[in-house]
Design goal:
The chain has a single domain, classed as Acetylglutamate kinase-like (Carbamate kinase, 3-Layer(aba) Sandwich). 40% of the residues lie in helices and 21% in strands. The strands form 3 sheets. Strands 3-6-2-1-9-12 form a 6-stranded parallel β-sheet, with helices on both faces. The protein has a 4-stranded mixed β-sheet with strand order 5-4-7-8.
Length: 251
């Protein structure tokens, strides 16, 4: 069977996170073309994308990640869901224009979290689309929460939850920068690229990593590295790559 790859297009890649609800249409279109090339070569794909300056700004305004209890917070919950789907529509439209059978799958339709961590998600639709030759497109989204009322689940949480059942061979995270650096290269010119995160340097890497530039309510790079390291440990043979999506041909 053809290789299955989970690909995440980071919110910092496909939007300008310093400007509210500002997509990068040229970047989205180029990524869609590169995804189409991989698809044409026989690679099976599940695409996910972050919310960038769409969902994160609204989520920070209403405190959605920390819980949803009051009428104002439920209004914010709905606002976050709305802007997340707007960006999802832009991504799906670009994939369709590239000739791909892209189908949006919103996690909020079945996701249930517990204290901010994704606890349940129905993966049957994603599996069915893959088995029938379609391209599922998931994204960071709102979710009901058994303890907090509501919250936000990141794209990484969704992909991690789907990994045991779907067994991808590779998971590729495409962001604004090319991989993991010793510090934020946008703020520290002395930052160096770390070619590999392993058991030998994991703790040291986490000590140097911070959050993300712009609004990011789901933890930034440190949280991504922490989650991906645990995922790779739990799934021997799974390769996780962090690449710079602004470089043409990187996907």
């Amino acid at each position: 069977m053809a290789e299955l790859v989970f690909l995440k297009l980071g919110g910092s890649l496909i939007t300008d996170k310093a400007r509210t609800q500002t997509p990068r249409p040229d970047v989205i279109a180029r990524c869609a073309a590169e995804i189409a090339a991989a698809w044409g070569a026989g690679v099976r794909l599940l695409v996910g994308h972050g919310s960038g300056s769409f969902g994160h700004a609204e989520a920070r305004r209403f405190g959605t990640r920390q819980g949803v209890r009051t009428p104002d917070e439920w209004y914010g919950f709905a606002r976050v869901a709305d802007v997340a789907r707007r960006l999802n529509c832009l991504v799906v439209q670009a994939l369709l224009q590239a000739g791909l059978p892209a189908v949006a799958v919103s996690p909020s339709a079945s996701a249930v979290a517990r204290a901010g961590e994704l606890a349940r998600l129905d993966g049957a639709v994603v599996r069915g689309l893959l088995e029938r030759g379609a391209l599922p497109v998931v994204h960071g989204d709102v979710a009901l929460d058994e303890e907090w009322g509501g919250t936000i689940v990141s794209t990484e949480q969704v992909l991690i939850h789907l990994t045991p059942a779907l067994r991808p061979q590779r998971l590729v995270l495409a962001g604004e920068v090319a991989g993991v650096f010793s510090a934020d290269p946008g703020l520290d010119p002395a930052a160096t690229l770390l070619p590999r995160v392993s058991a030998g340097n994991y703790d040291e890497v986490l000590r140097h990593l911070g959050g993300a530039r712009g609004a990011d309510v789901t933890g930034g790079m440190a949280d991504k590295v922490r989650r991906m390291y645990r995922l790779a440990e739990a799934n021997p043979g799974l390769l996780v790559h962090l690449v710079g999506g602004l470089t043409p041909g990187c996907l």
